[in-house]
Amino acid sequence: MMVIMQNSSRPRSNAKKESHERIVDAAARAIRRSGYDGTGVADIMKEAGLTHGAFYAHFESREAMLAEAADHAGATANAAAAKIVASVPDSQSLQALLQAYLSKAHIDGIETGCPVSALGSEMHRQSPEVRRVATRRIKEMIDLVARQLPEWGQPCAHERALAIVASMVGTLILARAVDDSVLSDALCNASLQSLVLPVTAPTD
After folding, report:
1. What is the pLDDT of residues 174-183, one digit of tens each?
2. What is the DSSP string of the chain?
3. All structural domains of the chain
4. The whole model's pTM is what?
């Protein structure tokens, strides 16, 4: 009897895990598409194919769900960036990363793209839990950029990475904001040209 009960409980456990992942994935897309305040529990559960009543079997609160969604969105975006970096020679990694980040596909793909550019202006109004996970993923993003710089290992690499990430995010926000495709392209091209300029590491 015990063996039967253990075996029968395993599919239920897996099903709950899969349902949880569907909710988080749906919420991660929703916050980037509609913002934190525009993301309702009922809509997310419907998108995940679950009933509204099942929500509290997975999360203690809406804020807990938003925090996990923000973490998932950031982790997914950083993993995609790391994959781009790994696919090219070291000397081309920064340029490849910038070109992908400021591409037309990324501008249009807001609900699957970088959550920082999609949600940055809303971050300061969120709960400490949401801001904490978002900050951790932003730090990861900065570190990834710093490791692509020729001066990696020196203090100036982190400082330059801060400026690059700020420019990347700011450019994408502006490129999405304007209703002029020519201006949107010009913003991205101008940033690409300025950000990939080599910076000479300081000498002793």
Report:
1. 999 999 999 9
2. -HHHHHHHHHHHHHHHHHHHHHHHHHHHHHHHHH-STT--HHHHHHHTT--GGGGGGT-SSHHHHHHHHHHHHHHHHHHHHHHHHHTS-GGGHHHHHHHHHTSHHHHH-GGGS-HHHHHGGGGGGS-HHHHHHHHHHHHHHHHHHHTTSTTTTSHHHHHHHHHHHHHHHHHHHHHHH-S-HHHHHHHHHHHHHHHTS--PPP--
3. 2-195 (1.10.357.10)
4. 0.84
